[in-house]
Design brief:
The protein is mainly alpha-helical and 419 residues long. The chain is 74% helix and 0% strand.
């Protein structure tokens, strides 16, 4: 029953019916369903079965919660401290519920398909909007350079584009493991639908991210040089297509001055300077109060609001997720990992790489979709075979040093961009 409630919750996260259905207007349906799932799940934990969840990501999720709360405490805003603690506590709760309940291959497959189904719904809403049928009533995104579709709830124009990029590799996973012609045709159509939606959003970062996903799918899924070369060529052709037909991408590629981008890079530079005074952060969702505009960069968003340790932990969750996925996809010992697990691990790697790429152009640091992906990855680690992870310590110095180096490189890259 709790798992069924979790599936409904994941669908609601995407569709957000309370935003446009008159009968649900103003109803806190997301919080209600989450509360029901928690009430069904918590008693089982209290009865002594316990969480079988020894993973780096789970430890880091708790640390991220601590740093996020302390960052807000650092600026002396007690109301904000309480809100940050409670709001992020909900994310942590959903994360652990997912990791615990997605405990069979069937449940894992159902969860992944549910995420794709949610993506299909918001994608169809966006395409219908383009053709004059605005189901959600949100209207087009206001932009002087182009007409842009937008999503509902947390999936505004840019986030709608990025969501399609994160979900596309999971669609590819089903395409790979499905053998029947009709289902494969369906997943191929969904893949194309997601890419068409990205194009209609006019999101420059989204289009770049989508192009990179195509290249990454060929690189991650095939070791043959000529196949990888073909994939990279296809990615380049897609980018050329976007340059030719997207007026918004032309404003950058054509050398025209883009005030929006200039304002963002100025804010990035100011945020890095401000980091000297607030190395532990200025508090969750405080960036716009300090710098007047949104960060439009998850790395700047996290390091400014949660501090250098917060960014370190955030990057560490990515690092260990990708590292563990690579262990699964590269393990061929009989009886430990099956082909489906190897395939989905590769797809999830591409999704995370897409998220990292998209994060350079968007405020995606706190979006629940990311932590849903992390929960899926930890569930896959449990389902694969714990034996392949027992050889390694939970945290090793060499890994922590790599994460620290990665953080320094990212900050230096942003510093160079903001000059």
């Amino acid at each position: 029953m709790a798992f069924f409630g979790l599936i409904i919750f994941l669908l609601i996260i995407f569709i957000q019916p309370q935003e446009f259905l008159p009968a649900m207007k103003g109803l806190q349906i997301v919080a209600i369903i989450m509360g029901i799932v928690a009430l069904l799940w918590i008693p089982k934990r209290l009865m002594g079965r316990g969480l079988k969840n020894k993973s780096q990501q789970s430890v880091l999720m708790l640390f991220f919660w601590i740093f996020l709360t302390l960052a807000t405490f650092n600026i002396g805003w007690m109301g904000g401290v309480f809100n940050a603690f409670i709001e992020w506590g909900k994310f942590v709760l959903i994360y652990f519920i997912m990791v615990d309940l997605i405990n069979t291959p069937d449940r894992f497959g159902i969860t992944v398909f549910t995420l794709i189904a949610g993506g299909i719904v918001i994608s169809v809403f966006g395409v219908l909007q383009w053709f004059g049928i605005d189901v959600t009533g949100v209207g087009f995104s206001s932009d002087s350079t182009a007409v842009r579709i937008r999503g509902i709830g947390i999936f505004d124009t840019n986030q709608l584009a990025y969501a399609m990029c994160f979900l596309a590799p999971l669609v590819f996973y089903f395409f790979k493991v499905t053998k029947s012609f009709i289902p494969r045709l369906f997943f191929a159509a969904v893949f194309c639908l997601f890419y068409y939606t990205v194009y209609l959003t006019g999101s420059r970062g989204g289009m770049i991210c989508a192009v990179m996903v195509v290249g990454l799918l060929f690189i991650v899924f095939n070791k043959k040089k000529h196949v990888r070369a073909f994939g990279l060529t296809l990615a380049v052709l897609l980018f050329v297509f976007c340059l030719q037909f997207s007026s918004r991408l032309q404003t950058v590629s054509g050398g025209q001055e883009d005030g929006s981008f200039k304002g963002r890079t100025d804010a990035w530079g100011a945020a890095l300077i401000n980091l000297k005074s607030y190395p532990f952060g200025i508090g969750k969702e405080q960036f716009q109060d300090y710098f007047d505009i949104a960060a439009h960069n998850s790395y700047i968003q996290v390091v400014s609001e949660i501090g250098v340790f917060g960014l370190f932990v955030w990057l560490a969750i990515f690092y260990y997720s990708i590292k563990n996925l690579r262990l699964i996809s590269g393990h061929f010992e009989p009886g430990l990992i099956n082909d489906r697990q190897r395939t989905v691990s590769k797809s999830l790697q591409v999704s995370l790489f897409a998220y990292l790429i998209g994060s350079f152009f968007s405020n995606s640091g706190y979006y629940i979709t990311l932590y849903i992906l992390f929960a899926l990855i930890v569930s896959l680690q449990r389902l694969a075979s714990p034996a392949i992870f027992k050889k390694n310590k939970l945290f090793q110095f060499k890994d922590l040093a790599r994460i620290g180096t990665l953080e320094i490189v990212i900050i230096l890259l942003i510093h160079t961009t903001s000059k």
